[in-house]
Amino acid sequence: VxxxxxxxGLVQPGGSLRLACAxxxxxxxxxxxxxxxxxxxxxxxxVARISDTGDFTNYASSVKGRxxxxxxxxxxxxxxxMNSLKPEDTAVYYCARLYGRPSYSPVDLGSWGxxxxxxxxx
Length: 122
Hints:
10 strands; single chain; 122 residues; 45% strand
């Protein structure tokens, strides 16, 4: 399992970013996927999850209505569109595979990518 995140950067409050996670080494369309984030001094937290087909999604309450998870199974890529960004969204963002097709499947803790830094600051 290899996951490579990209798309992070510095953005002003209220701005947008689109993260991408390119997957390889497994049958991407057979697994749910997720995005997590970890801010300095805090535990890693779940941000969004998506089922294998993309039909079902789940979001943390802190990002619901602002972030959208999606996937392109033809390109083995999962995305996180982040709008109306806030300083508290500053973190390293990671994608991870789920241990199954549904979005509520447990996370494969051995599948983390290297992460991409998102900084929201004026």
